[in-house]
Amino acid sequence: MNAILPDVSLSETATLPAALDWVGMQGIDLPIRLGEGDLDSFVPARADVQVDLPAATAKGIHMSRLYRLLDRLGEPLTPERLRSLLADMVTSHRSCDSRAARLRLDFALLVRRPALVTAELSGWKRYPVRLEASWVAGVFQLSARVQIPYSSTCPCSASLARQLVERAFLEEHGTAEHVDPVTVASWLRRHASLATPHSQRSLAQVQVSIPAGAVDLNLLPLIDQCERALGTPVQTAVKRADEQAFAALNGSNLMFVEDAARRLLVALRDSHQEVRIHVRHLESLHPHDASAWASSSPA
After folding, report:
1. Which CATH superfamily is domain 21-154+198-295 in?
2. Which helix (H) or strand (E) holds 107?
3. What is the pTM of this model?
4. What is the Cα–Cα distance from 275 to 267, expressed in whole angstroms?
5. Where is this site: May be catalytically important (predicted)?
6. Taking the CB of the first residue and of the last residue of the chain, which one, N or C, has fewer CB atoms within 10 A?
7. 3-state secondary structure 229-298
8. Which residues 6+ apart lie within 8 Å of 140 measured at CB?
C-alpha cells in the first residue's frame, strides 16, 4: 500500500491559538555511551527532550524527529555532541518557528572502588548523574549534577560520648594515685564503647556548569574531588581490617551538615562554574534529616 498517511500536525491548525514554552517527551529509555577513560561504555539512561512552540497556530510538533535524533547519544557523549544535537533539534522544527531545545539525561555511573587497606579487594559503587542541556537562541548551556554518598559522624555527639567515657573511668579509677597503662588499656577495651557518637549515611548533590568549549564532561574527576573534600566516602567490599580503618577515618573526620556543605563549596568554587550544593545527613538520632545548601556565583 502506497497511500499517503494523514498528518494532522501539518494539515490542521490549533483551535485555541497560543504559543507554548516547551513541548516534547519525558521518560524515554535509551542507552547512552560515556567516552571518558575507564567509563567508555554504554549505560542505560532516561531522557526528557523538548522544543519551544512559538507558532501560536501550529497544531503540534514532530515528536518522532526528536526521538530519532536521540539515537546520536550512542556516540561517545561530549559537550560538543550535546550542543550539536540540540541545535539540530531546533533546525528540525523550523516549521514551528522553534528557537530553543532542552534535554535532560538521568543515568548512573557504576565505578569500582578499592577497599581501604586490604590489597586487591574492591567493589562497585553507584553514582546517580543528571545532565541538563539547553540551546536557546543560539546559546548553549550544560550542567552536570552528581549524587555522592558519604558517612558523617556528629561532633556534638562525639563530645558527649567522650564525656560519658571519661566520667565512667573516673568513677572507677579517680581515687587511684597511679593507674598503669595496661590497666587503662584493659578498661578501655571493655568500656570505651559504653557511649558511641551517632553517625549516618549522608548524601551530597553537587551541580556544576560545564563551560563552553569543554572537551569532556569530566564526571568521575568531579566525583573524586567531592569525595576527597568530604573525607569519608562509603565503602563497598570490606574485611574487618577495612571496617576498622573506616571507623578510625570517621573518628578523625567529625562533621556537621554545615561542615560538609562548606568543604564542598571551598573545594569546588575555584575550579567549577556555578556550583550548587545540597547535603543531607540521614540522621540516626532523629526521624528527620539535617540539610544544608550552598552555591557560588559565576566568576
Report:
1. Urate Oxidase; (3.10.270.10)
2. strand 100-114
3. 0.90
4. 10
5. 154
6. N
7. HHCCECCCCCCHHHHHHHHHHHHCCCCCHHHHHHHHHHHHCCCCEEEEEEEEECCCCCCCCEEEEEECCC
8. 82, 83, 86, 87, 133, 134, 212
125-180 pLDDT per residue, tens = 999 999 999 999 999 999 999 999 999 999 999 999 999 999 999 998 888 888 99
Q: At what angle do helices 219-230 and 257-268 cross, to 10 degrees?
A: 130
**Are the C-beta atoms of residues 270 and 277 closer than 8 Å to each other?**
no
Distance of CA 113 to the CA centre of its chain: 17
Answer for the pair 202, 254: CB distance below 8 angstroms, yes or no: no
> Tens of pLDDT along 32-78?
998 777 777 899 999 999 999 998 888 889 999 999 999 999 899 99
Position of cell 545527613?
A: 281
